[in-house]
Design goal:
By secondary structure, the chain is mostly beta strands. The protein has a domain at about 5-10 and about 25-115: Deoxyuridine triphosphatase (dUTPase) (Deoxyuridine 5'-Triphosphate Nucleotidohydrolase, Chain A), CATH 2.70.40.10. It has one helix spanning about 65-70, and strands spanning about 5, 25, 35, 40-50, 55-60, 70-75, 80, 90-95, 100-105, 110-115. A 4-stranded antiparallel β-sheet has the order 1-4-8-6. The longest helix has 7 residues, at about 65-70. The termini are far apart.
Length: about 140
């Protein structure tokens, strides 16, 4: 899949770290450090603008290292970038720790993964077919 991208950041284009990496890292593109207080959140710009092919989305997801080491994650995870969006890719970070977190320019703040999707054609009906599961959900199968 080809993704058209404009890079207005001070950093290189995103790239896959290894041959089998599912996502690419997104970097903060900021003029000065951003402090995120405990339980605070901030929209961090990346300087990237994309045009995805129709039928594709990009998902912005947390980086596991930031989550485990600093308690920082992506607030609306996964954040969806639609194929027709042309604005700057931004990352909403939230600090779930009890210490300030300082975002530095060029820091890897999230990862981006691409997925193909289908569209639903809704058909309104009066009843649904029965299944073994039925309406069970939210842990209905137990803990084992």
């Amino acid at each position: 899949m080809k993704v058209k991208i404009i890079n207005r950041s001070k950093h290189a284009l995103p790239e896959y770290a290894t041959e089998q990496s599912a996502g690419v890292d997104l970097r903060a593109n900021i003029d000065s450090p951003v402090v995120i207080r405990p339980l605070g959140r901030a929209l961090i710009p990346t300087g990237l603008f994309m045009a995805l092919p129709e039928g594709w989305e990009a998902q912005v997801r947390p980086r596991s290292g930031l989550a485990i080491k600093k308690g920082v994650t992506v607030l609306n995870t996964p954040g969806t970038i639609d194929a027709d969006y042309r604005g700057e890719v931004g990352v909403i970070l939230v600090n779930l720790s009890d210490e300030d977190f300082v975002v530095q320019d060029g820091e890897r703040i999230a990862q981006m993964i691409f997925n193909q999707y289908g569209k639903a054609d809704f058909v309104e009906v009066e009843t649904l077919d029965e299944t073994e599961r039925g309406a069970g959900g939210f842990g209905h199968t137990g803990r084992s």
